Amino acid sequence: MDIPCTVRRASQADADTLVRFNCAMAHETEDKGLDAEVVERGVRGLFERPDHGFYLVAERDGDVAGSLMVTPEWSDWRDGFFWWVQSVYVQADHRRTGVYSALYEAVRTRARAASDVCGIRLYVERENTGAREVYSRLGMEETAYRLYEELL
Predict the structure, then answer these.
(1) What number of helices (H) and strands (E) belong to the chain?
(2) C-alpha angle 130-31-129 in degrees, rounded to nearest 5
(3) Which distant-in-sequence residues (6+ apart) come within 8 Å of 110 by Cβ?
(4) Other C-beta atoms within 10 Å of 70: how many?
(5) Which residue ranges in the chain fall short of pLDDT 70?
(6) pLDDT at position 128, please?
(7) CB proximity list for 34: less than 8 A, separation 6 or greater
(8) Domain 6-137 adopts which CATH fold?
(9) First vs last Cα of the chain: how many Å apart?
(10) pLDDT at 75
(11) pTM for this one?
(12) What is the reported pLDDT for 1?
């Protein structure tokens, strides 16, 4: 059942909540412990460099129920930016109530209004079938690409 919430762009005042959400998300989805000090620098760093992306938060009854981060990636093939949805987190007591749907719709609306955005992308753990079902239901399609990385 979808319960209304308000989505807004996050501000510095939300930094502590975003750090807490990021650490909780890593623990829940990947059983990974993050260094909260490093995460805090990363969260606050994004506010200092808005060209690197932005956070959205969903509020319900004055409480931040969920959040996500959007980062741009330039596509020379399309002469536009893909917006990557990252750091998605919805508090447990607000899950399955439309919080992520509201956040994603806010991203979609902002992306369509921006003349230089050509698409929205995200990555998800293969085993996270619940999230994959949600993304599909919202109109996203799984791609043929596999993700590779080298951590430095």
Answers:
(1) 4, 5
(2) 15
(3) none
(4) 25
(5) 1
(6) 83
(7) 22, 23, 26, 27
(8) Aminopeptidase (3.40.630)
(9) 43
(10) 97
(11) 0.91
(12) 66
Q: Tens of pLDDT along 92-113?
A: 999 999 999 999 999 999 999 9
In this structure, are residues 53 and 71 in contact, taking their beta carbons and an 8 Å threshold? yes
> What's the token pair of residue 105?
């719709």
Residue 49, pLDDT score: 97
- Give the position of tokens 């995460």: 39
Round to whole Å and give the CA distance between 136 and 24: 24
Q: Where are the domains of the chain?
A: 6-137
Q: Do the strands 63-75 and 80-90 form a parallel or antiparallel pair, or are they unpaired?
A: antiparallel
List the structure tokens of 12. 């510095």
Query: What are the residue ranges of helices labelled H in 2-128?
Result: 15-30, 36-48, 99-113
By three-state DSSP, how is residue 62 classified? Answer: coil
